[in-house]
Write a structure and sequence with these properties.
Elements: E1 9-15, H1 25-41, E2 45-52, E3 55-61, H2 68-85, E4 100-104, H3 109-117, H4 119-122, H5 128-138
Antiparallel strand pairs: 1-3, 1-4, 2-3
Helix pairs in contact: 1-2
Length: 147
């Protein structure tokens, strides 16, 4: 992994469909482990996964042979399929359409890792919508579509 040109850190975030609080603490590790397994299968090195009841954050190195869109499509589709096959939740499990994916410079990896690992504390003060709005503002992207 010493070739910096092929090394892209990605901070991805996506929510459950309609932001339903389906990822209860009792199944959170199962959800995160499945996301980890999906990323490993896609040859993406995973640094950390975190989140709360209605969304997840992931920090990983993108496989240089794959696009972010392909990785996240497989990650979300494969994990929700597994959750429904194993009846992980009482109701049908689905992820929201879309995602946020932000590149992270090497110098900010530890800060993003800390942020992801402290999601529970973070969300005692901030809703998912407000958190996402702050990401968009930070990256200079439009916020008028955030509900």
């Amino acid at each position: 992994m010493s070739h910096s040109k092929s090394k892209l850190w990605v901070h991805a975030v996506f929510s459950t469909k309609d932001r339903q609080p389906l990822i209860y603490p009792s199944i959170r590790s199962t959800v995160h482990n499945e996301l980890l397994n999906q990323l490993i299968h896609l040859d993406c090195f995973v640094d950390c996964i975190g989140g709360v009841a209605d969304h997840v954050h992931l920090l990983f190195l993108l496989n240089p042979k794959k696009s972010i869109a392909d990785v996240l499509k497989q990650l979300k589709g494969g994990s929700s399929h597994t959750f429904n096959q194993t009846k992980l939740t009482a109701t049908h499990f689905a992820w929201q359409t879309g995602y946020g994916a932000f590149s992270v410079s090497e110098s900010h990896v530890s800060r993003v890792r800390n942020y992801i690992q402290n999601q529970e504390e973070h969300h005692r003060k901030l809703s998912f919508q407000e958190e996402y709005r702050r990401f968009m503002v930070h990256y200079g992207l439009p916020t008028d579509h955030i509900g």
